[in-house]
Every structure is written in C-alpha cells, then in structure tokens.
Amino acid sequence: MKNIKEFKRSSNGLLIPNQDVVFQALFGTKGSENILGGFLSSILGEKVDNISLDANQNLTREEIEEKHGIVDLKANVGNKTTVHIEVQMIDPHNMFKRLLWYWARIYGIQLKNTENYSKLKKTIAILIVNYDIRKFESFEDAHTKWELLEKRNLDIRPFEDIEIHILELPKILKNHNATKKDLRTWLEFLLNPESEEVMMSKEEYKELNEAYEKLEYISENENLRRHADLMLMAILDENSKREAIKEQEERIQKGKEELQKGQDELQKGQDELQKSKEEFAKSLLKMNLDINEIAKMTKLSIEQIQKLSS
User: Fold this and answer.
1) What is each CA distance from 70 to 2, 33, 282, in whole angstroms?
2) CB neighbourhood size of 209 (10 A)
3) Residues 6+ apart with CB under 8 A from 310
4) Cα(296)–Cα(279) distance, integer angstroms
5) What 3-state DSSP class applies to 167?
6) Residues 55, 74: contact at Cβ < 8 Å?
C-alpha cells in the first residue's frame, strides 16, 4: 500500500485534487467559478458559464436526520440548472441509492412551502469515484451519463430535470484514452496535477491553468493540509478495515468450500459402500441364502434386500 504522502501530494508537494476536501477548496469556493466552468464544460459537452457558488452548502446530519453526508460542491448554472458534485475515495456501499437520495434531496429543497413546482430547476448530479464500479466493468469510457427515458420513445423527454454523470478515475490509469481529451486532461489533473499531459495542456485550457495555479496556492494552507491528512488517514484506516474483513470472509468461504468438499467425498464413499453391499447381497441371493443371513452379512435391512430380489 502507498504511504500517506504518495496519496495526498504530488512530487512537487501539491495536494492531490481527487481528495474531497481538496476538491471542494479548489472548485467550490468563491472565485473558482471559471475553474468549475471549465471542468463542467468538459463533462457536459457544452460551454458552461454564469456559475454561482454562493449556494454552495453541505448536507449535514443536523439537516437530514441521521444521514451524514456531504455534497462536496453545489452550484447554480444560470437560473435554470443546479449542479452538485461528490467525490468518493472508497465505495460507500449502496452507492446508486445514495446518489439518487442526494439528487432527490437537492432537487426537493429548492422549493419553499408556498412555491409552485414550476420553480424547480434541472438538477445534475456528478459523482467522481476513485475505485472500480463492479457493474461498470464492461464500460470502456470513464464517463457515463444517465437520464430517465422511455426506452421505446427516446426522443420524448418529460423528465429532463434529472441527469447523472459518473466519472471513474481508475479507468484513466488503466487506459489513457478512456474518454475524450478535454475531460481526460481534467481527470488526469485530479489524479496527478504534475503529469506530463497536464503540464502540456495548461496553455491550451486556460481554466486548467487557473486551477493549477490555485492548487499551488491552497497547497500552502496548513489548515487544509492538516484536514487533508486527517481525511486521508481515515480513508486508509477504512480501507485497512475493509481489506481485513475481506480476507476474513475469504478464509471463511475457503473453509466452507473445503468442508463441502469433505462432505461430498464422504457421501461418495458412503454411496460406493452401499453399492458394494447391494452387489454382494445380489450375489448371495443368487446362491439362495436365507434373507435374514444376508441381512446379517451385509448390514442391509430386510426391506432393502427384498427390493434387490424383486
């Protein structure tokens, strides 16, 4: 396993942006509108500007009963769209339900009690994960887009307010061409801001260059670095716990398989013994031996021997 420094900082001491606390500081604070616009444009495939980050908020336990979750970034795009982005370093389990729950919560809290449903804005959820999604193993592209459609009439879209994007960072590491170039460069930046591709692309994408410069600045913030350390240690601890549980489950499963194998072999031996007894009993029946004597010699019941003689 990599040590903490390798996870949290690049070779030049920069914090790594795919960690949620760093991501929020880089993309989700006032003054980051251009940076976020460039990143969103690469995801949504269209120019994104007129971004407002003053609506940025966390969904905390105080607001949502016992569900403790943080949406890393929440922003308004113009007057008609709300975007929220979440970064996940480890699989939280029930990921898809969790994502829908966040989407529904943010969509629903737009309305005040007296407002009309027409006030609801389109809500786009973006999930960035730093682990492989098992259900997406067959997908080559690191970026998937999900919408609510009628499968026989794809051109009719009454539910345009829901849109979900999922970005799998590990696929960029496994396949450099796992998505289109502009988005790939941003994802590479999240993984390794000092990579050759990022260095070569900074001049081409001005928002990326601005993001790099801001990352240099916030990487000097001691409070943020301490927070990043604590968050990362919690992640590594959780990963260690999961690995230990997985190893224990594998040992239990192996024990079950070995026990089943032993039981199967025992049953096979018993079946072979039973067959031998029956063959022996048949040979004794041909010799016209008394059925009670055969039962004593073979340890078969009278009923079993009678069936053999019929």
Assistant:
1) 26, 20, 76
2) 16
3) none
4) 15
5) strand
6) yes
Extract the tokens encoding 123: 């809500």
For residue 253, give the 3-state DSSP assignment. Answer: helix
Q: Which residues pair with 86 in a beta bridge?
A: 127
With a CB cutoff of 8 Å and minimum separation 6, the contacts of 78 are: 50
Dihedral (CA of 79, 28, 206, 130) sign = negative
Pairing outcome for strands 143-147 and 162-168 = antiparallel
Dist. CA 167–CA 86, nearest whole Å: 10
Phi/psi of residue 133, nearest 5 degrees: -95, 115
On whether residue 14 sits in a domain, the answer given is yes
**Structural domain includes residue 165:** yes
CA neighbor of 32 nearest in space, from 220, 211, 223: 211
Q: Would you call 26 exposed, middle or buried from its count of C-beta atoms within 10 A (0-12, 13-18, 19+)?
A: buried
Give the chain's residues under pLDDT 50: 1-7, 56, 58-70
Phi and psi for 278 in degrees, rounded to 5? -65, -40
Phi, psi dihedral angles at 128 (to 5 degrees): -110, 120
The boundaries of the domain holding residue 87 are: 4-220
Q: Could you tell me if residue 78 is inside a domain?
A: yes
Tens digit of each residue's pLDDT (9 = 90 or more) over 210-257: 999 999 988 888 777 777 767 667 767 676 777 787 788 888 888 898
With respect to residue 279, please indicate whether it lies within any of the assigned structural domains.
no
Token duo for residue 133: 């999604």
- What is the CB-side half-sphere exposure of residue 185 using CA atoms within 13 A? 23
Residue 246, CB-side half-sphere exposure with 13 Å CA sphere: 6
pTM: 0.70
Token duo for residue 100: 């829908």
Give me the number of domains the chain comprises: 1
Beta-bridged to residue 124, according to DSSP, are 83, 163
